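Morning!

As promised:
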Amino acid sequence: MTLSISLETRVLSNGLSVVVSENPAAPVFGLCILYRIGSRLEPRGRSGFAHLFEHLMFEGTPHAGKGVFDRVCESSGGSNNGQTRPDVTIYVVDAPSSALDRILFLEADRMSALAFGQESLDNQRDVVKEEIRVNVQNDPYGLFEYGELPQALFEKWENAHDGYGDFHDLDAATLGDVESFFAAFYRPNNAILAVAGDVSAADVFEKAERLFGGIPAASLPPRPDLSEPKRPAPVLLVKEAPLARTPAIAMAWRMPERTHPDAIPLLLLGELLHNGRASRLYSGLVEGRQIATDLSGGFNPFQGGTWYDGATLFLSRLGYRRDVSETTVLAAFDEEVARIACDGVGEGELARVKTKVLTDWYAGLEPRLGLAVEMAQAVAFSGAPESLLDFPGQIEAVTHEELRRAAAWLDPRTRAAIVKVPPRVDKEAK
Amino acid sequence: MNSVESLPPLGPPRPVPAPRVDRAVLPNGLAVQVVPYAGVPLVSVRLVTRGGLSDDPAGSPGLARLFAASLREGTTTRTSAVLADLAQEAGGDLSAGAGPDSLSIGASGLAARFPLLLDLVADLAMRPAFPADGVARVKDLVHEDLETSESEPSYLAVRAFARALYGNHPYGTISPTSASIDAVAPELLAAVAPRRLRPERSLLLVAGDVDAGAVHAEAARLFGGWRGAGESPAAVPVPVAPAGPRRILVLDRPGSVQTNLLVGNLGFSRTDPDAYPLELAMTIYGGSFTSRLVQNLREQKGYTYSPGAGASWLAGCGTVRSYAAVRTEVTGAALNEILYEMERMATTEASDEEMERAFRRDAGSLAISLQTAAGVADEVGRLWVLGLPPEEIGREVDELARVTKADVRRASRRVFGTGAARIVAVGDAAAIREELGTFGELEEVPAGE
């Protein structure tokens, strides 16, 4: 199993990192601009602001008015999006290679300056609220593993608060907030530009220098310490979910820093427990005990890989049968983890899980945009794009002993869990 | 479009290369297509069989779904657990599913392990065992899944919309019922298997970093002895558009903070001469962020976060539908805008700029979707089910380039008329019934039924 990709990097004098991977096999490219600002570092009293700001990046600049970015992108045959994660906000484009020049132009343009008024802010505030209504309030489970679980798990406001934000905080956001957020975080020395696909590295470097080189750097706000030790005590919250028909539980643990020796084993453990029908939880809880109906989760689920600052979480989310109690589900989960912690994992199973993890990783890098995002994250969190190529070696190197040690992190005594139960119905009376 | 003075021009469009497809047909009628595709050391294997949910008898809604899910539960030579371990050993997933027009068995993983992946797919297709405990588990899961789905308004809307448009035609049923799940038994599934899964109705598709000759040899060895039995299912009948004027079906979901709206009509077949004009029409209308519907409902009015529209291509006849999940208080206003945008498509011509944008958009999406082996396999399989050869991929961009404004308007006239449209609204009936009643004949039922 091999993967040979080209990786070339330049850092402009204003601090912008530019990374390129050439691949002429299909006439397309993927582009990612990553800013080192996510929902964890948004201002207090402004929960949801990083996400609202992501929407505002499409509202216009002095050169290109509201909606121009989307229109140009689509009229060129591409598509674009933005995503706010806990530690970074990424802006991504998938496009035919014929559109490279104009996409670079527009990305540089909106890194230079934004220009829009109160009306745009109000409009996007409504759009964001509607997104929250669709994804959270109208969802039978309220997306609880994303918004509510971190609040139960973490202590520090940065880690705990809901990145979607509450409506009160969103309403409080002003144009002044927008300006100061842009000035503080949307600077070239806080950004990475990654391009993968049917492009030439020399060409991208030359254009990046011309288009982005004049954007001034700024001194960046200090980064707070986002690490948190294991929870001192467990917590279990039971909440009624009026729109749900079947119960679900989401549980999480605080995880150590990304360079901790247990990080990669924990990532592998997440896959061993959750990934596919051969996974421990599927065979143990869905097939074996027949109590769970669906499952998902793993290490650092909201950012992927080991890309995060400070602490992250290990998540497990299980849908289960109505005639089963949460105590039974938790006990079964704990048994599965204890089995790994005590007995370890057989040679064949360990090899299979590693193969599966690496296959999924390769599959994620085949689309040009998937590679571009990975390149940008590698630079953001480790300083060098080449570090993404370390992943296969890191996975291959995980030992039985390390997996057992990783399993010890999933201790019931340091767990936070939320149960969502459907309203009680008297089945007999119906 | 707002002009940007210094915006660099687009480069010359680069052609989308037609994938190289290496084809053979085994003596038992199985079509084998191999698409060698280097890049990452992976391969996608899928076996696609014509006929899916549309083959289900009226008394057994959703049978194909239970059938497909049960294939994964074990073969006469391997248990479910052994299958899962072997799939994982190849770095892969093993899956089986049913769509309206097809059954599919898929496996993907490391290219070097393609013989094992082919072997697993052959095992499921040729030697399913339908063990009692496995079938019981599948039934439980489908039950639970159905219950979960029924708590989601978007699912309720889609299910009701299919019924409203297709009536008793097989496409009118998209899922099983509690009773039809209960009625499934291993013997029934075992009887269904050789009748529906037959080589002459199937395509084996292998795309990835593989040698075509080696794949063909292995496919002949593993699938050569495959035979169907019993009477082959009949082709799906062509659906007839529902009679009568516009109708609105309200599924009452008290307490909903929003209304899920679906609006649409029957479309037509993918082999219809207006298929490419309709593709562009959908992109202009609601198939992209810059489309009329999205700009209107999301950007100008702020009614909804994710409105859109799409044409589904089915072997019989698909649908053209618009969807939007909107705040309860703007339900009537949003429906008004949707109907307006539909009529505008049917009665006026698109602008040159919309045409150019839609063409670049559709050609670009195609290039983007074909950048991975799995993307190529998806497209080849989809075309095959609809009766088109893989060469169609190489023609798509040229066909789109030839479409004129008059073509788009003609195709739009066939699908965007609102006089006989079917409308489904899932939401709080007390809050929306009066307003919606002004748009046509309204019927109201509880969402749970």
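The mean pLDDT of chain B is 93.

Hope this helps with the figure draft.
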